[in-house]
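S.,

As promised, the iron/sulfur cluster run. Input:
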Amino acid sequence: MSAQTLFDKIWSRHIVARAGGDTEVLYIDRHFIHEVTSPQAFEGLRQRQLPVFRPAQTIATADHNVPTRNQQLPIQEERSRSQIEQLSRNCADFGIELYGLGHPRQGIVHVIGPELGITQPGMTIVCGDSHTSTHGAFGCIAFGIGTSQVEQTLATQCLLQQKPKQMRIRVEGQLQAGVTAKDIILHIISRLSASGGTGHFIEYAGPAIRALSMEARMTICNMSIEMGARGGLIAPDETTFRYLKGRPFAPQGDAFAKAAEEWASLYTDEGAAFDAEYIFQAGEIEPMVTFGTNPGMGIGISQRIPEPEKQSPSFRKALSYMGLQPGQQMKGQAVQYVFIGSCTNARIEDLRSVASFVKGKQKSPGINAMIVPGSRQVEAQAKAEGLDRIFAEAGFDFREPGCSACLGMNEDKVPAGAYCVSTSNRNFEGRQGPGARTILASPLTAAATAIAGCLADVREHYQQN
Amino acid sequence: MQAFKTLHSTAVPLPIEEVDTDQIIPARFLKATTREGFGDNLFRDWRYDEKGQPRAGFVLNNPVYQGKILLAGRNFGCGSSREHAAWALYDYGFRVVVSSFFADIFRANALNNGLLPVQVSEEVLHECFSAVEADPAARFVADLANQRFKIDATGRAVSFDIDPYKKHCLLEGLDDLDYLLSIQNDILRYEQQRAAVAL
Ligand code: SF4
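Predicted complex:
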């Protein structure tokens, strides 16, 4: 048999039938749903009088539209409350397990799937959310879908798909101290652009990727969609198996050893062909920040905002929205808000790295700094390790889990005109609130910025120490 | 889903690149549990100011530009998977979006809702913008059966790609779910063969 990519191996095992043209019927192993993109899908099922075909393969949580304070109290905003109630009703009516508000397993859908061991190598996974690509870190095919497709998955456990093109991105070498997975992915997107991956699934490979923890790999795969890619994935290895072992939904005992043996066959064969390949050098990557209104508009913290000779209207529009000038340096830029959270960077390692940086320091008085854990389990773990006290002493506001200011659906918004350094994944106009100016960065850069009161180069801290 | 055959219409120009789904429909309007009514908040923050007053400079507030075709810059619909973006465009009255590039999930969502994405070259897109600039009453034709898109003013006609399966669905007004339900026996057979691990 000819050489296959990791992606080919998983894809071909999930084809149920061909629908004509290039369209194939793909079987879906796991389906995550949340309150915002599922109600219309359930409405569709009711209209057609259809049951959920495989309710045990769907897991629900409430994350996008939840408050991050006082989650034990009824939600005040009426439309948000009704959306959450609707999710509970739908899950009860259709027999789906729900980790709703207050449940010890509640959290951002892309944080809880891996942390519970629901996400496993070799699977196909979908969710009505573009950052489903996160789960690819385990060596599975995971991608975001629209609500019509949520309905199709609920009704048939299948989707109609065309096989995407494939790209491989290798990251060679070793990162500098203070440079993280978030910087790797922001660097790649700044080089390939916000549409550089469209139509592709991306396999991340190379020593710098292998060296990353599972949580850091999730950060990389998470942002694949910001290049327009359908998803990203990383071949599973010992790091993956060690992470999964003992998680509630992972195979237990002998079954785990057997599964791990099978998972170990999930890699790209020597000589397998990709439609596009890129190589990056980890050592050249700086802590990254964005200066514009899409994640491709990023630069190293020591760089200046580019001055393209021919500035497109979109480039000008982005800079004018951000209130920034071509040629300007980002380091030293005044900031009013720091948001540490989201499915990109709100796992326990992210919180630990922030805590290790801010311990014994004080946030700058002009900064409003918020930390929103990715899940109830992350929150509990942080408290068990005393991170909550470190955050409080440094003047950070440690909240309850949810998507929060990543998309500003709840009250956690950034006011118009204010700058916010955010560990989330999107710096779109108005994403964090109408008029809000988002600067994407790593948790370490966010922590250093909160202390300094302006955009800071975290490497200086490591040089001093 | 409504069938789509051929559309003759004037067009609304939005010559901005990387229009993401947060612009098409901001997240704070995603609290609804039905599909209707999203058109009112289409491009909300570009269309209205903080007080809810229409912004004079935005194209949807300019009565000179009307029509069921939206002309937009490259990488239209990038960002979030929210199908609400396609619903909002459709609810507002658009039936075709023309761009030089569409984000994958948006394209799929549009096709699942009877909204036809027509991808043309950068050059043809430019010609479309020029035609509307010269005459807001300029008309265009999107003919799905023949996969042809025509700029009436210049007579230029180009072909556009669409997957044969999706084309069939759109012409007949069928959706993916109808098809998937029709092959349920195949799905059961597949499951038996693979003995899928349930949670
Ligand atoms: S944290 Fe942000 S990006 Fe992640 S699922 Fe929630 S809204 Fe989407």
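The pocket of iron/sulfur cluster is lined by residues A 63-64, 108, 110, 129, 131, 342-343, 403, 406-407, 424-425 (CB under 6 Å). The two ends of chain A are 54 Å apart (CA to CA).

- D.
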